[in-house]
Amino acid sequence: MASSNGPLRVGIGGPVGSGKTALTDKLCKAMRDRWSVAVVTNDIYTQEDAEALVRMQALPSDRIVGVETGGCPHTAIREDATINLQAIADLNRRIPDLDVVFIESGGDNLAATFSPDLADITLYVISVCQGEEIPRKGGPGITRSDLLVINKTDLAPYVGADLDVMQRDADRMRQSRPFVFSDMKRGEGVERIVEFLRVEGGL
Predict the structure, then answer these.
(1) From edge to edge, which strands make up the β-sheet containing 147-151?
(2) Residue 71: left (phi > 0), alpha (psi -120 to 50), or beta?
(3) How many CA atoms within 13 Å lie on the side-chain side of 1?
(4) What is the pLDDT of residues 124-168, one digit of tens each?
(5) CATH number assigned to the domain comprising residue 97
(6) Is 121 helix (H, G, I), strand (E, B) or coil?
(7) Which of 43, 76, 90, 161 has CB 3.0 to 4.6 Å from 132, enough for a Cys bridge?
(8) Residue 14: how many CB atoms within 10 A of its CB?
(9) Phi then psi for 95, rounded to 5 degrees?
(10) pLDDT at 45 over 80
(11) Total number of domains constituting the chain
């Protein structure tokens, strides 16, 4: 099912601890039986996220590549995406039928964005644990990502986050752009995200 233009490249960004790796794991497991999937993870000095995905058995290890970005992780997904583009090219050579490559960014702040040369679709993950005010704080990930994922809804009662407030603020900040509430521990929201990728990515 691979496109003549190469695999669909999906960028997954968000702050440290928001649940990017858990989302990547769930998406791989939900999609791997229907599509040919691979992952590139970004970490500053290690390959921790790639190793975690291998332990989680998200995909066979030959479909998971970790890159060490050094310095600021957003540089490798925005200003100079060469290291990620090279990793995708290497995956494509080894697995020529690839349909989807997930590019998980290193944990960064609300200003992180993906270069359009790197990602066809961007998902931005925030956690209710960061506070109910996070959607209204804005930033390009929150306002301009193709899909905003508001994760860890199961923890809202414990951190005093009002999901109705977060929904209202996300509606206002994103205008017509979609967002979804999720709980990766229970897999809630995953089907909606997969369907979004199928439709918007032309899978």
Answers:
(1) 64-68, 37-43, 100-104, 8-13, 121-127, 147-151, 179-181
(2) left
(3) 14
(4) 999 999 999 999 999 999 999 999 999 999 999 999 999 999 999
(5) 3.40.50.300
(6) strand
(7) 161
(8) 28
(9) -130, 80
(10) no
(11) 1
* Nearest alpha carbon to residue 112 among 150, 84, 77: 77
Q: What's the pLDDT band for 196 if we cut at 50, 70, 90?
A: very high
Counting other chains too, the contacts that 172-177 makes at CB distance below 8 Å and 24 or more residues apart are 172/136, 173/135, 173/136, 173/138, 173/142, 173/143, 174/142, 174/143, 174/148, 177/143, 177/144, 177/145, 177/146, 177/147, 177/148
* Residue 149 falls inside a structural domain: yes
Q: What are phi and psi of 108, to 5 degrees?
A: -145, -170
Tens of pLDDT along 29-38? 999 999 999 9
pTM for the predicted model, two decimal places: 0.94
Is 53 a member of any domain?
yes
Check if the beta carbon of residue 126 is closer than 8 Å to that of residue 64: no
Distance CA 31, CA 182 (A): 17
For 164-186, b where at least 16 C-beta lie within 10 A, e where not — what string? Answer: eebeebbeebbeeeebbbbbbee
Expressed as residue numbers, the domain containing 88 is 8-198
Q: How far apart are CA 136 and CA 139, in angstroms?
A: 9
Whether 2 maps to a domain, the answer reads: no
